[in-house]
């Protein structure tokens, strides 16, 4: 069984979306992949994803409300076939932790290595709009990533 881990800083905004979207695709296509997510920090361990991520995912008929934030553990280095960072800082932090071959999500879906913007720091009236844009980017990238895993080109 292929195992894929999505990683961001807090594991409450971005990687829970990637986790939920990937699980949804895996379920729909009947694939036998294990999907998980984690944070490089331990700041939000045990917490559910942030309310805006839950809301945006729900709009796309994906329930991420039952996820809980966890931090990276050394076992993850051996346990996962594919480890995917949401931004370059996450990737650097993961490499310092001991991960090798860390993929950047923004290297898929035609985003040319763009960081997934961190919506935790979004403010103002357009916050949900910002989360929607993040969702769209994550969805596009995860779709291409999973296609590449499936067809063996990754
Ligand atoms: P995430 O967003 O990495 O997408 O889960 C963040 C969550 C929390 C913090 C930063 C980013 N924080 O500073 O607590």
Question: TL;DR?
Answer:
The chain is of the alpha/beta class and 154 residues long. The protein has a single domain, classed as Rossmann fold (3-Layer(aba) Sandwich). It is built from five helices and four strands; from the N terminus they run E-H-E-H-H-E-H-E-H.
Structural class: alpha/beta
User: What hetero molecules are bound to the protein chains?
Assistant: 4-nitrophenyl phosphate
Oligomer: single chain
Taking pLDDT < 50 over at least 5 consecutive residues as the criterion, the unreliable ranges are none
The third-level CATH topology is: Rossmann fold
Tell me about the largest β-sheet: 4 strands, parallel
By CATH reckoning, the class would read Alpha Beta
In the sheet with the most strands, the strands line up as 2-1-3-4
Distance between the termini: 15 Å
Q: Outline, from the CA principal axes?
A: globular
Total strands: the figure is 4
Question: How much helicity do the residues have?
Answer: 40-55%
Strand content: 5-15%
Radius of gyration over alpha carbons?
Answer: 14 Å
How many H/I helices?
Answer: 5
